[in-house]
């Protein structure tokens, strides 16, 4: 048994040397080596480009996470403010509309009063004119 182990190892050693040895085209292996290096550089460049794209996407999502809650808060605050101010605006509109109708009512009442005064004055003049021209007055004045 002792003899078989060294013999097996020796056979294995020489077998591996023979497999690796043979005519190797130095030019072919150099071209293959250069091609592998170029492929590796291309892959590194692609990985770098993808990493940059991933970083840009991460920044964009980070910016959205910061800006969207702020925008949502601004919109909700604006809606809340509008909801609070709307009843006040409606009341102010009703009050100013009522004041405008009061002033127009006052102007109409003033015109009606003036017309009533003029009508009353015209009636008094008509009555006075009739009394002056009445036949009883004329007969009393002749005597």
- Mean residue pLDDT: 81
- Major sheet details: none
Q: What's the overall geometry?
A: rod-shaped
User: What is the rounded Rg?
Assistant: 57 Å
Spatial gap, N to C terminus: 187 Å
Transmembrane segments: 70-96
Region (Disordered): 43-66, 122-143
Biased composition (Basic and acidic residues): 128-143
Keywords: Membrane, Transmembrane, Transmembrane helix
Would you spell out the secondary-structure blueprint of this structure?
Elements: H1 4-20, H2 26-133, H3 135-142
Transmembrane segments: 70-96
Region (Disordered): 43-66, 122-143
Keywords: Membrane, Transmembrane, Transmembrane helix
Describe it for me?
By secondary structure, this protein is mainly α. The protein has a domain at 43-142. It is built from three helices and no strands. It has helices spanning 4-20, 26-133, 135-142. The model has no long low-confidence stretch (mean pLDDT 81). The chain crosses the membrane at residues 70-96. Keywords: Membrane, Transmembrane, Transmembrane helix. Residues 128-143 have a biased composition (Basic and acidic residues). Residues 43-66, 122-143 are annotated as: Disordered.
List keywords for this structure.
143 residues, mainly alpha, 3 helices
Short account of what is shown:
The protein is mostly helical and 143 residues long.
